[in-house]
Amino acid sequence: MAKTEGEIVIKKYANRRLYNTGTSTYVTLEDLAKMVKKGEEFVVQDAKTGEDITHSVLTQIIFEQESKTGNTLLPISFLRQLIGYYGDQMQMVVPSFLEHSMKAFTEQQTQMREQITKAFGETPLTKNLQMPIQLMEEQVKRNTEMFHQAMQMFSPFLGSQPPKESRKAEAKDIDELKEQLRTLQNKLDSL
């Protein structure tokens, strides 16, 4: 989608149609989702009032993506916790926390992709990807656990502390993951 001078403005009309003023074409929520994935910035305005409704339109895109694909990114427990923060004293902290968490997650994924590309080139063989894929899966699990633990910090009464045995098991898992990362790093260095 082409840009006009500055940012792309999408106008939403009363009939729920979306109009891209940069390309002079009507667009769908799917088109806007593609723009987001490409990293294109845009603002959605109510065509009648000029009010910025970008937040509600992006939320609508998330709702459609969640219901269309069947692959949900937002687990029910997370949604319940998120809803619980509305009207809570922590409500002001949650948006910046989520933004920083997603930024850190994105940076980690970018670093992992760069490591894999450096190690295996642009077209790695499937068998060579086995270890990096496992490491990425572990990274995602760790990020999810870290996020869940951080959310519990904001609301300590939602869940109790894990038992001592569970913490020991988690520490052992972390040590194993560190060893796997060292092994992968040594393989990468040798290549």
Structure write-up:
The structure is a single chain. With 191 residues, the chain is α+β, with helices and mostly antiparallel strands. The protein contains six helices and four strands; from the N terminus they run E-E-E-H-E-H-H-H-H-H. A four-stranded mixed sheet has the order 3-2-1-4. A hairpin with a 5-residue loop joins strand 1 and strand 2. Helix 4 runs antiparallel to helix 5. It is globular and about 60 Å long. The two termini are 41 Å apart. The mean pLDDT is 78.
How would you summarize this macromolecular structure in one to three sentences?
This protein has 191 residues and is of the alpha+beta class. The protein has helices at 29-38, 54-69, 76-85, 94-120, 126-154, 164-190; strands at 8-12, 18-20, 25-27, 42-46.
